[in-house]
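=== Discrete structure encoding ===
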Amino acid sequence: MMGDNRNIPTLTLATALILASALPVAADSSSWFSRETPETPVPKLAPSPKKNASPTATTTGTGSSTIQKSIPSNIPATGDDAAYTAFDQGQYLTALKLAEEAAARGEPQANTLIARIYTEGLGVQKDDRKAFEYYKRAADMGDVPGTLALAVSYAEGRGVKKDRKIAGELFEKAALTGNAEANYNLGMLFLKGDGKPLSPIRAYQHIRYAAEKGIPQAQYDLAELYQTGTGVDANALEAAKWLSRAADQGLAVAQYDYAVRLLQGYGLTKDEPRIPVLLKAAAEKGIPGAQNRLGYVYLDGIKVKKDPVEAAKWRLIAKKNGFADDNFDGIVGKMSKADRAKAQSEASAWIDQIAADPGLSAAP
């Protein structure tokens, strides 16, 4: 999006689209909610359905195309909360039984909960077709999370034949309720002309709405719309503002991208002291480009005290993760043997720690 060619991964706006789903789905030519690149691992879904809670998001992808989805891990409950309490405690078979009873009583959200259990294979055999049927029941009864998940099913051909047009209609239906994730998905469909007519202006309107509602991926993509003048007049200040907001919410790629923008003098002046903080956050979430750039920050003493060993440490970590930089390698090679050994030891310790607990580097 907005960064230097050497250290920033190529990320195309049209590859970021939120889908509402209870489980990551396979990518093809478009994408739905928090974007994933090979540098940003997908965080695991933590089941915790609470009343009136907002959906969370994760992503999956293949090649240069990514799928982004809003995952209704927090499914709102109505009536008897027993099924949701059991689900929250990991008692999935009990939750399924109680949800089936609630569904028989006509509770819409119970169908969504049942569908999620079958989608993820929680205590039962995964069954996309059965999940689709329950999502459809929930959607027919007006349940918004169920409607979003049904849209995912159609968009990705999960349990039903793929149909982006129907997916677009379902996203629009959910968007009319004010749902931020649905608006973002709808905006991305308009942006790409996939399931909806190509309309950059409509795309901007829906993505802007989602960004204002606090969705970090929408804020990140809105920054690019302002940067490129897509659907709205180009505005570098607005681009920087929205990129900063996405970074503030911990979106790893936004932290990395915004830090580089600040280094280039294109961010908000007040944020310049945050350069090393943002880069370190992105680096610790496993983005090799951020790891490499952080090394340069320590090498040159940019908003931090110069530290050649720390610089070499992050360069070695980035190199281990496949980020090439012959110039930096040459600099490290000229360091004293003692400094190189210390840097290697610290880099190995960091890599071992992440290997032991991959969740430490999961990038949102």
